[in-house]
Amino acid sequence: MKVTTQGQVTIPAHIRKSLGILPGDSVTFVENDRGEIVLKRTIQDQQDPIEIVAHRFKLSMSSDELIALLREAS
């Protein structure tokens, strides 16, 4: 990846997909114990975790429909 003169980089599509990063999401760069910089998706409190999971797995149902389906299975 190249850094622009304004310090911006483009996160490749396969990385955005694997981390579940969507337009408008926030990311954080964190240094780990080995001195490596790690990209993490910032989870904001207002996001519904079920909606996040449903989107990651490309489910075509709402969180309410997913909960109902899960309740039926148990």
From TrEMBL:
Keyword line: DNA-binding
Entry-linked Pfam families: MazE_antitoxin (PF04014)
SUPFAM superfamilies listed in its UniProt record: AbrB/MazE/MraZ-like
InterPro entries in the record: SpoVT-AbrB_dom, SpoVT-AbrB_sf
Keyword hit for DNA-binding: yes
Sequence ranges assigned to domain SpoVT-AbrB in this UniProt record: 1-44
NCBIfam families in alphabetical order: lp_hng_hel_AbrB (TIGR01439)
Protein name (Swiss-Prot/TrEMBL): SpoVT-AbrB domain-containing protein
Organism: Kistimonas scapharcae
Lineage per the UniProt record: Bacteria, Pseudomonadati, Pseudomonadota, Gammaproteobacteria, Oceanospirillales
